[in-house]
Amino acid sequence: MKEIKLRLAILLVLATLQNASSHGEQPLSRISIHKATFALHELAYIQASPTVLGLRGENTEWVTLEFGSKNPSVDDWIGVFSPANFSASTCPEENPRVYPPFLCSAPIKFQYANYSAPEYKDTGKGFLKLQLINQRSDFSFVLFSGGLLNPKVVAVSNHVAFSNPDAPVYPRLAQGKEWNEMTVTWTSGYGINEAEPFVEWGPRGESMRSPAVTQTVDRNSLCGAPARTVGWRDPGFIHTSFLKELWPNRVYTYKLGHRLFNGTYIWSQTYHFRASPYPGQNSLQRVVIFGDMGKDEADGSNEYNNFQRGSLNTTKQLIQDLKNIDIVFHIGDVCYANGYLSQWDQFTAQVEPIASTVPYMIASGNHERDWPGTGSFYENMDSGGECGVLAENMFYVPTETRAKFWYSTDYGMFRFCIADTEHDWREGTEQYKFIEHCLASVDRQKQPWLIFLAHRVLGYSSCISYAEEGSFEEPMGRESLQKLWQKYKVDIALYGHVHNYERTCPIYQNICTNEEKHYYKGSLNGTIHVVAGGAGASLSTFTTLQTKWSIFKDYDHGFVKLTAFDHSNLLFEYKKSRDGQVYDSFRISRDYRDILACTVDSCSSTTLAS
Ligand SMILES: *[C@@H]1O[C@H](CO)[C@@H](O)[C@H](O)[C@H]1NC(C)=O
Ligand SMILES: *[C@@H]1O[C@H](CO)[C@@H](O)[C@H](O)[C@H]1NC(C)=O
Ligand SMILES: *[C@@H]1O[C@H](CO)[C@@H](O)[C@H](O)[C@H]1NC(C)=O
Ligand SMILES: *[C@@H]1O[C@H](CO)[C@@H](O)[C@H](O)[C@H]1NC(C)=O
Ligand SMILES: *[C@@H]1O[C@H](CO)[C@@H](O)[C@H](O)[C@H]1NC(C)=O
Ligand SMILES: [Fe+2]
Questions:
Q1: Which-ligand-closest: CA of 333?
Q2: Which of 519, 525, 527, 593 to mutate to test the pocket of ligand 4 (most atoms within 8 A of CB)?
């Protein structure tokens, strides 16, 4: 008996430890909401105002909370719940070894009671300003004592709601399967039995309507906790419209619409985008690439691990420079919701100014996909039970099947081959075949700039953990792929996952193929590998070991920008998120014959016959 108890205790401790290590990046996971109890006190109160938000159509608004407690403590905190009528009944358990929770849902955000009122612990009175976004339900605010680990509900506020909680919000553009197709994906509270979703769009002065399709995500399509338990929140209706036969480079305006079945129309605000160039078109083309940005709260809530300023700084810099950006790639670890579904709405709200204006193309990372026993290449718990479902629904990507998150997309003189490192990429796999096909099928005379993108570092990185393994890469990363990069003359390969910036020399099989550092003329003879995972998440340390191939390292938040001036000239820049300034750069100048030229392991056969 004693032994069984001990074993149970060990299992529980192990479960907790595993939880801690796998969801460590998600601040909401620090709250033991499943242990929450009720200790309502008649003299404690919390009051929110205003009670109706978005009266002029805004999707983001600030509320002010005033609260008081008879037994204040420094670790009192305030949780925001949405829907407002959060359940206080005992909730179903997911894992038989873990106690069922008493509150069925985690708050969507939280802040300490003393945040704006340091005197709270003495006076018992405080106030707080919080930013809310329209996410389809009303809100309530709860004052807790007992800290994050033993939460006790002391007071519950009045309810607050947006005037139309169902409104269409947070459009995100993505390139379609054809070069002249743009897809628009958005979220609303209108299902197919209530309204018909569509996009009204056209070049200036004209307008037409295109239908949208509707998808939902239900709890049963997710793989585990917290996504299926306290992290679950109805993601609403996700609509995608396919805008086809676009005229290259033309500016289109659009707005999201829902026609209710009683004839009423519900509209979003008006947005605009510029249609993509024809593949091969010679014009100025500017691409931004980064990984691991995550999201954060402008009001300072949920702050953890210094995500806050990193993520918001990157977002701010991109918005400021938006007129000089044509397309964005966020190569995995998109919002670190880690099974707390409310965070996806908050992420799409954060990037809305960017994603509603230029195509926002994502790749899949461990925090989107990994979950044991679900076919992910890595069997860890980094997705918090989402197993890819949220990423696959919230953002459109032109894949053949969304669960296999690899795809190819063209932007003018660029060809991008996007791999999915959460599925096996080694020789003989379906993904390897795709990668080879993507690299081999591009017309380099028209699309000279061939870029490989993936979440984990399949190339080279001096991150301390990779250095300690001795591999300087994700194990098995480049062994299969380097001969493809070399054979098809990939110019640049970029990765996230490691939260810093690093650039290599043009390299093949660990050897620099070119001594130059800033101005490459003629054939590169190898591929330049870049880690650009510093867009927001807490930074990763470098090893102190110096390698020949590492040309530039930066332990800071930043992102990469590629500018193609024409078929012969490319500029690469690394910018810091704190000031938008360039801290590393290089140029490539070369002609078509330099791409055709023979280098090691990439020569076509020739014959002596004439
Ligand atoms: C506010 O609360 C936090 C969390 O309990 C605590 O770490 C901090 O010291 C408090 N600040 C003040 C000014 O009391
Ligand atoms: C809470 O409100 C939602 C709709 O806002 C409703 O579907 C649900 O049944 C309510 N739950 C409780 C416990 O009242
Ligand atoms: C149609 O339904 C909506 C939502 O229920 C309501 O606000 C609107 O007044 C209705 N319009 C008409 C013409 O009945
Ligand atoms: C690239 O490789 C070719 C053939 O091996 C060689 O002639 C050329 O000098 C190399 N270019 C550079 C920049 O090293
Ligand atoms: C964000 O940018 C500000 C300056 O604009 C800087 O002071 C701050 O350190 C930056 N934060 C991070 C985490 O880089
Ligand atoms: Fe990652």
A1: 6
A2: 525
**CA angle 391–406–175, rounded 5-degree value:** 70
Minimum-distance ligand 5 atom for the alpha carbon of 578: 2
How many whole angstroms separate alpha carbon 568 and alpha carbon 548?
A: 28
Q: How many CB atoms lie within 10 A of CB 88?
A: 14
Element of type H or E holding 481 = helix 477-487
Cα 106 to Cα 232: distance, rounded to the nearest angstrom: 8
Indicate whether 14 belongs to any domain: no
Q: Are residues 100 and 223 in the same domain?
A: no
Q: 147, 162, 177: which is the final residue of a domain?
A: 162
**Same domain assignment for residues 258 and 400:** no
The tokens of 186 are what? 């958005």
Q: Look at residues 272, 300, 324 and tell me which one is the last residue of a structural domain.
A: 272
Task: Tell whether pTM > 0.70.
Answer: yes
Q: How far is CA 131 from its chain centroid?
A: 21
> Are 255 and 399 within one domain?
no
* Ligand 3 binding site (Cβ under 6 Å of any ligand atom): 260, 262-264
**How is residue 59 written in tokens?**
């999707």
CA-based R_g, the chain, Å: 25
DSSP letter, residue 400:
S
Q: What are phi and psi of 109, to 5 degrees?
A: -160, 165
Contacts of 272 (CB under 8 A, 6+ apart): 251, 252, 253, 254, 357
| Residue 354 is assigned to a structural domain of this protein | yes
Do 380 and 427 have their domain in common? Answer: yes
Domain count, the chain: 3
Q: How far is CA 339 from CA 69, 272, 336, 376, 382, in A?
A: 32, 32, 8, 16, 9
Atom index in ligand 1 nearest the CA of residue 114 equals 1
- 222 Cα: distance to centroid of ligand 2 (angstroms): 21
**Can you give the residue range of the structural domain that contains 493?**
273-596
Taking CA atoms, 54 is separated from 161, 165, 264, in Å, by 9, 9, 19
> What is the distance in A from the centroid of ligand 2 to the CA of 227?
19
- 98 class by beta-carbon count within 10 Å (0-12 exposed, 13-18 middle, 19+ buried): middle
* End-to-end Cα, the chain, rounded Å: 88
Q: pLDDT per residue over 394-445, tens digit each? A: 999 999 999 999 999 999 999 999 999 999 999 999 999 999 999 999 999 9
**Tokens encoding 571:** 């500029």
Q: In angstroms, rounded to a whole number, what is the distance separating the alpha carbons of residues 207 and 225?
A: 45
Do residues 192 and 140 both lie within one domain? Answer: no
Question: Could you tell me which of 358, 353, 310 has the C-alpha nearest to residue 333?
Answer: 310
Tens digits of per-residue pLDDT, 305-357?
778 889 999 999 999 999 999 999 999 999 999 999 999 999 999 999 999 99
Shared-domain flag, residues 245 and 157: no
Ligand 3 pocket mutation pick from 190, 260, 266 by most atoms within 8 angstroms of CB: 260
Whether residue 544 contacts residue 509, with contact meaning beta carbons closer than 8 Å, is answered with no
